Amino acid sequence: QVQLVESGGGLVQPGGSLRLSCAASGITFSRATMSWYRRAPGKERELVASAGVRTNYADSVKGRFTISRDNAKNTVYLQMNSLKPEDTAVYYCNAFYDMVYWGQGTQVTVSS
Q1: Are 83 and 32 in contact (CB under 8 A)?
Q2: Is the pLDDT of residue 98 over 90?
């Protein structure tokens, strides 16, 4: 059974930082493409960053967010710096291996 468990969300002021973590089990983590998506209120889900053969970022987060993975810990991270109110969303961990898997999501709220 595949499980993706996100953590690290919360409330932060504009300009602040958060680090999201996603612990995976039930897959060969080192072979999976791991990604972070987000869904803001009233908007469609969008890709934030992915780490597979290449690392990719949405234009809106380039230079502020960094995705990384620790294959020994089966964990992917999203370091988010210089957060803006428009980064407010539910952030989802995604794994693509033999099929697509999703975590339950973690809320990130950027507000003063």
Answers
A1: no
A2: no
